[in-house]
Amino acid sequence: MELESALKDCSCALQLFLNNRFADALALLRPRKSESMYHAMGYSSILVMQAAMTFEPKDIDTATTSLRESLQTCQRFRKKSGFMETIATFWYGQPTENFTEEQIHAELCYAEVLLQKAALTFLDESLISFIKGGMKIRHSYQIYKDCQDLSNVLEDSEKQKSTYVHFKGGVNMGIGSFNLMLSLLPSRVLRLMEFLGFSGDRELGLSELREGAASDSLRSILSTLTLLMFHLYITVILGTGEPNLAEAESLLKPYVEKFPNGALMLFYTARIALLKGDFTFAQENFLACIAAQEEWRQIHHLCYWELMWAYSFELRWKEAYRYADLLCKENKWSQAVYAFQKAAILSMLPEKEAMAWGRMWQVDGLRMRIAGKSIPTEKFAAKKAQRYSSATPAKLPVPALEMMYVWNGFTVVGKRPSLTQNILATLEEADEELKNDPNPTEYHLDDRCVIQLLKGLCFRHLGCLVQAEDCFNHVIAR
């Protein structure tokens, strides 16, 4: 199949996907997935997204099989190398001369599929799978660098071809994503990764992704979504800086205009509103996102998580509990966190507090492991829940607000002074209860410190810096 025709088909499939017609997108790509690298890559990419959302073994197996077949399809179009060339490529990368138009696209598609296969490998909890995934990522990164070198040395006549913009957009997306994500690693780990040949330059990563997002290429949406994920989630959760909401809105605007009922567009519109502190508008758009499609219910689960927090920020615990309960029943991403979150919200409702104890007992048994290691948020939840089943059981004073802090939610609710005041009032009430407790537990001091920390955050966001400092000093002094 001609490269240009394959790209047109994949572009049509992408339009279907963004219009919530996920099955139709797969149906369009399926017939030619064994004869076209782009059909193969697009088809397996959708299955990978589905597997990552469901965590169902059958979906993971289906996606893994499709990725294996896609790699074989892409391999058929790659430049053939002899034994010595293969050895040289392993050490020095792919030489950049004498590539055909089809071969350079095959390199790019192979790198993308290999990276997806590596990501899926991490869903297996064994150490061996973790190592295999790391090796695949290293190989994928090397191919992306080779593609970047190819892009730099191609003749102008090659760059004038209609397919080049799609190749360049893929290079932007790959190099940009690698640099951006690696730049988030701790400095010691980053130095090790750079020694192994990776690059973790955040500004370069953002620049490449912005160039890719601005291009009229098949992969421009991937660059856009990566930037949105960085601005709207990573910077917030990791606390690496203020999210660039203006850029996020600018990136999203053309897609909102083109796909006004697209689930992804509604979701990110709602997320931007949430980070601005407009919780009512955010809730409306998350609900609209849920109503927009039924085919992929896992997108509903993303909305449930966000709605749970949107209502929690407003201290509307019954509404928040509803979505925490739905996550526990329907989603498999992190059952330990969901169970803890559900119990934490219940504990904020005096009439339901007794029910929270039973939920807390379940948390530790629901933990997942990746390469033998616990997920940090699950480890935190299990550690907190342990006190409910200890020899001298004791409740957590404000577990839902503590989890809000863990997910950096105070930076979000801090944009609404009235709601911050309400949270502060809840904390002061809990603090007063602890101070007057006639039978303090062994956790009494820890609980007081947690409350002082959270009160300090509230005061800081309210501009009461002296009171905030007093709270933080209280914690340090203990």
UniProtKB/TrEMBL annotation:
> From what superkingdom does this record's organism come?
Eukaryota
Q: What is this protein called?
A: Tetratricopeptide repeat protein 39B
Q: Name one GO biological process term.
A: lipid metabolic process
User: Which Pfam families does the record cross-reference, listed alphabetically?
Assistant: Iml2-TPR_39
- Tell me which UniProt keywords the record has, alphabetically: Lipid metabolism, Repeat, TPR repeat
InterPro entries per record: IML2/TPR_39, TPR-like_helical_dom_sf
Origin organism is Tetraodon nigroviridis
Q: Does the keyword Membrane apply?
A: no
Q: Would you identify the family this protein belongs to, as annotated? A: Belongs to the TTC39 family.
